[in-house]
Design brief:
With 159 residues, the protein is mainly α. It is built from six helices and no strands. It has a single domain, classed as Four Helix Bundle (Hemerythrin (Met), subunit A) (Up-down Bundle). Helices cover 74% and strands 0% of the residues. Helix 2 packs parallel to helix 4, helix 3 runs antiparallel to helix 4 and helix 4 packs antiparallel against helix 5. The chain is elongated, with a radius of gyration of 20 Å.
Length: 159
């Protein structure tokens, strides 16, 4: 009886330890369900657009690992499609920074934002096409190109 208790405790401890070190993966279904339940908060930094972008970033982190495994192409495709849906929603939002742009410059700012989001969508389509074609090298290049959009876009539209 005592040995069984010790063994059960040891197994429970190992399971707890393993879960602490496991890499959390965000699958496309989770992204989709989160996107449908995203709510606007009163905090200026927690706008609807910010919520969409947080979910997009989660998806991109998930893609980083799934793109490394050829057996997870279906997961990668599903995640890319979920991200693309979030990008469409985000395109309809106005960046919080737009309020601080002089009114005379605001239409140009919003046009630039819309065009940047369209470019993001194009890069996602490139990634999706590469995955469908089974071209791992092109998929990785498309993923890298998406990452290269992030910093300049955030500098310009997030502030």
């Amino acid at each position: 009886m005592k040995n069984r208790l010790i063994l059960t405790g040891a197994l429970a401890g190992l399971a707890l330890l393993a879960s602490a070190f496991a890499r959390p993966e965000t699958d496309a279904a989770e992204l989709t369900s989160r996107a449908s339940t995203v709510r606007v908060q009163d905090d200026d930094d927690d706008t609807q657009l910010a919520q969409y972008m947080k979910e997009i970033n989660r998806g991109l982190r998930s893609l980083r690992s799934s793109l490394q495994d050829a057996e997870r192409t279906a997961d990668s495709l599903q995640t890319v499609r979920a991200i693309a849906g979030l990008v469409v929603k985000a395109r309809g939002e106005t960046p919080h920074l737009a309020a601080s742009v002089p009114e005379a410059d605001r239409p140009e700012f919003l046009k630039a934002y819309a065009l940047q989001m369209i470019e993001f969508s194009r890069k996602l389509l490139d990634l999706e096409a590469a995955l469908i074609q089974g071209d791992a090298e092109a998929a990785q290049a498309a993923y890298t190109a998406i990452g290269e959009l992030k910093k300049p876009s955030h500098e310009r539209f997030k502030g």
